[in-house]
Amino acid sequence: MYAQVVVDLPIDRIFHYSIPEGMREEIDVGKRVMVPFAGRRLTGYVVGLASRTPVARVKEIGAILDPFPIFDAQMLQLTRWMADYYACAWGEVLKAASPPRMKRVKRRGEEKSVEITPFLIPTTQQAEALKLIERGLEKDSSTTFLLHGVTGSGKTEVYLQSIARVLEKGKQAIVLIPEISLTPQTLERFRSRFGGRIAPWHSRLSRGERFQEWMRMREGKTDIVVGARSAIFAPFKNLGLIVIDEEHETSYKQTESPKYHVREVALERAYLSGAAVILGTATPSLESYFQARRGKYELAELATRVDDKIMPEVEIVDMRKELTVRGNRSIFSLRLQHSMQKRLDRKEQVILFLNRRGFSTFVLCRKCGQTMRCPFCDVSFTYHSKTGRLHCHYCNYQEEKPQVCPKCQSHQVGYLGAGTQKVESELRRLLPEARIGRMDSDTTRRKRSYGQILSSFQKHDIDILVGTQMIAKGLDFPKVTLVGVISADTALNLADFRASERTFQLLTQVAGRAGRGDIHGQVIIQTYNPEHYSIQAARLHDYVNFYQQEIEFRRELGYPPFSHLINVTLQSADANRLRKVAGKLGRILEANKEEGIDVLGPAPAPLTRIKGKWRWQIILKGSRTSEMRELLKGSLSQLKEPTSGRVRISLDVDPMGML
User: Fold this and answer.
1) From CA 518, how far away is CA 307, in angstroms rounded?
2) 290-299 per-position pLDDT tens digit
3) Residue 416 has pLDDT above 70, yes or no
4) Strand partners for 466
5) Separation between Cα atoms, residue 355 and residue 467, nearest integer Å
6) CA–CA separation, 193 vs 216, rounded Å?
7) Is the pLDDT of residue 644 over 50?
């Protein structure tokens, strides 16, 4: 007997290994094994068994690592589809979908008793959405629903009641959320309805905790998993529903191989298991709303907030006039300063949003104009006042802040631009009586820091919460009556065709944190580009108007959803070699392409160097990813360059960012 094994390397091939006599009873498809490979011992995944092998000499399996298969036939089918669609190795996908290996498992303690709360009586619009979803749940085939509801319209209640219907049928549910910061609040809501039937799944769990939760799912001790991206691989045998909350979020796309998008994987898994999918959001991705408009997804709308609460009033402040007309040099407009003081006097709470961490976003010499840049990446340093050092947010390189300019030796070194750290510092100076908290990746490094900060805010131990995009969505605090956006232009200035969409989504989502209680909410958006259609649409909470303008722009340029993209990134420490290989690959692609495929580039990437490696890009654009993948496969084999260790080539199918 022979085992067909794939390994966790960027090699899309199946290898044959002989099975020692003593392992033949124990071997099974779906188990992990230890195998010798090119002088190393690697983890492999058994994807099949065979009675013969195509090669004369084969090596033996070294060890079987699992007491039972961790992948069933359906999960093997799903991961094989992912490897094909995202042009990566099957072994890389299987590794991403695997639970951690544990030799000894410490059993979890007793569940804390949770008071089960009754389901709410649905609003008229919620009842209509539930009726639509229930009809889909009755079908044997998979159905996809886009639940488009304004912030505060009760989308979570629709999820909860849909899951209850699924559980009544003896089936299971996966609930995906985009940010770990949302996990404590989301888990609390789900546990209050379903008790201990919930399994959490996210990267802040220890290996032991992850293994325990995976075993509970596999053994049928839980029938709902709530978690981040990789919860899509939950080992449920009888899946009935997948919920993707805030489906538009870019964090659902993995940035390292396998570069999958969880929405597409969820749709494929639902198709294989006959489950329903609910995509919920106040700001649908253009791709999802486009599919709903053409009838591929069923559209359910929640157009008003629960209890008919009024949407917050949104004001736009033109920051160009703050200095020239009002003589205000602060990062806070006079309007925002006045409104914050007013809310503090009333014992209400404030959220301030800025999607940049650190103190100053760049450091430059005021005399010669030299910007302090990371020596390994093509980006400027960010100054962090807490450490007193310059940080690179791409490679984590740090150095001491300069006392003089390294170019002209001037002492006129300035710290410009604002990050969340600077916003916090300015607030303490401006409003010394306010209790201020900050939530970004610098303050949430410790395991339970997310929950601690949000718990303090919920108990009103914090008056003003400053944060990045992790506070922009999903949070529900009734005492928050003011949301301030320090700069609406951060996302708008990215070199990406999705910049306007991201801006609209972020502004709408963060605005939705205001006025969720009994007091009417207020939102102040500071910008240097007040006329931009994405900012104006966010001011009016008008998704449809934004969609109509943005979809025409996409149609004219042939961007998604009217096409698919594949981003081919080449990188090397040798800039000359990289330029030659990129040029050669570009010529081969042009020569081999068929009608309907555009080859854009090669050209230096927007971020031309990261971690000491130079980067070039080639973008393929076409209507069928299968044809583009075949073009790439043939062209890369034709390239015949000794790229190993010199030029590395990576593919990103349906990229969410172009940097």
Assistant:
1) 10
2) 999 999 999 9
3) no
4) 352, 438
5) 7
6) 19
7) no
How many Å apart are CA 393 and CA 365, to the nearest integer? 21
Structure tokens at 432: 């010394």
| The predicted structure's pLDDT at residue 641 | 63
Check residue 449 and report its DSSP letter: H
Cα(358)–Cα(422) distance, integer angstroms: 7
Query: What is the CATH number for 38?
Result: 3.40.1440.60
Mapped to the 3 state alphabet, what secondary structure does 6-22 carry? EECCCCCCCEEEECCHH
Both tokens assigned to 76: 């093997």
Judge residue 575's burial from the number of C-beta atoms within 10 Å of its C-beta, 0-12 exposed, 13-18 middle, 19 or more buried.
Answer: middle
Distance (Å, rounded) from C-alpha 37 to C-alpha 359? 48
Q: How many residues can be counted in the chain?
A: 659
Give one DSSP letter per residue of 390-439, joined into a string: EE-TTT--EEEPPSS-TTT--S-EEEES--HHHHHHHHHHH-TTS-EEEE
Q: Are residues 542 and 612 in the same domain?
A: no
Q: Are 294 and 111 in contact (CB under 8 A)?
A: no
The answer to the question of residue 81 being in a domain is no
Residue 251 has pLDDT above 60, yes or no: yes
Check if the beta carbon of residue 581 is closer than 8 Å to that of residue 615. no
How far apart CA 443 and CA 357 sit, in angstroms, is 10
Contact 605, 545 (CB under 8 A): no
**How far apart, in Å, are the Cα atoms of 473 and each of 57, 185, 231, 350?**
56, 12, 20, 15
Q: How many CA atoms lie within 13 A of 601 on its CB side?
A: 24
pTM score of the predicted model: 0.90
Query: Which pLDDT score is estimated for 180?
Result: 74
Instruction: Give the number of other CB atoms < 10 A from CB of residue 58.
Output: 14
Q: What is the pLDDT of residues 205-229, one digit of tens each?
A: 889 999 999 999 999 999 999 999 9
Structural domain boundaries enclosing 523 = 311-361+417-553
68 vs 602: CA distance, rounded Å:
47
Separation of alpha carbons 122 and 130, rounded Å: 9
Torsional sign, CA 530, 656, 421, 476: positive
Q: Total structural domains in the chain? A: 4
CATH of the domain at 320: 3.40.50.300
